[in-house]
User: Fold these one by one.
Assistant:
Number 1:
Amino acid sequence: MAVEARISIADLSYKMVPEHKAGDLTTCSSVHIRCKVTVKYASRRLRGNGKPVRDRQPDKSWTTDESRPVPDHSIFLRYEDTRRALQEMLASMPRLRDLDLSPDNWEAEPAAERAAGTLHRFARGENEQGRWTGARYRFEVHLSLEVTLVFSEPRALVGACVEGTMQTVAPGSDEACGICLEEFSKGRGSDPVNLPCEHAFHAHCVLACFYKGNTCPVCRHDLSGLVAAPWTKLAA
Ligand SMILES: [Zn+2]
Ligand SMILES: [Zn+2]
């Protein structure tokens, strides 16, 4: 994948809104999530040593809302059940669905974990005070997420060479990688990749080179201009 997402929580707060309609059987506890998302765009450039730099693409931001009834509010007394409920809720919110919220993409604790910790602590406190049973709670969770989409030009370039160039060297070939000089048949590295100039290298060897240069390491064939971040294409 040439685009990775880095997600961080810019702000998280909650409010517990007291429910007074105790006689109304249709009312149960509920959670309302209001989430603001700001997307920023960056690229790791060819010759950029792997460091992401911000693209000129303007930030995009939007707000999305979701409310869910929680018929059995005893789930808030159990951290794991609370986390799972919030996780499901976030994953199903229409304007969050396109973001990859998997745990690896978060800079720190994922939002569902942090929000679950907060609501769970509140529930435990209420329970210790003897106020939990029979009460109804409406939680308003306000979340502000910052998502940085990082396009990797070196990764995209390796992919573009594999897709756009006739691949003539098989993984079992006796030919050697032009960078580490090991034969591909030894199979200790990644699969061979032919560049448009036909020189072949292990994918991981040539990827490392593209962080420092934009030419074939053997013949200096110029490989610049073959890839661009999807958002720069949109802006063009
Ligand atoms: Zn190699
Ligand atoms: Zn070459």
Note: Helices lie at 79-92, 111-128, 153-164, 203-210, 230-235.
Number 2:
Amino acid sequence: MTETTHQITVDAQGCIGCGMCARVCPCGAMQVVDKQAVIDYTRCISCGMCATKCPKHVIRDAFGIFAAAPAL
Ligand code: SF4
Ligand code: SF4
């Protein structure tokens, strides 16, 4: 699956590299590289878990559903 067809993206600005997204990802698709979260689109299933947990709200989904969920 390519990035252009995918639902989940991480903003280029604003990520603090906390790693919360990587910890909750069920697929091992999220990694933090140089304090920036990076999605492996060959693994990501667009579940949106990372977007609901990001404390900086920099993970977006194409439909604005997951990112709108309050951080728990
Ligand atoms: S959408 Fe789901 S599978 Fe994709 S990176 Fe986020 S938590 Fe992982
Ligand atoms: S949870 Fe958000 S701020 Fe933390 S590493 Fe992931 S994208 Fe960056």
Note: The domain at 8-61 is CATH 3.30.70.20 (Alpha-Beta Plaits).
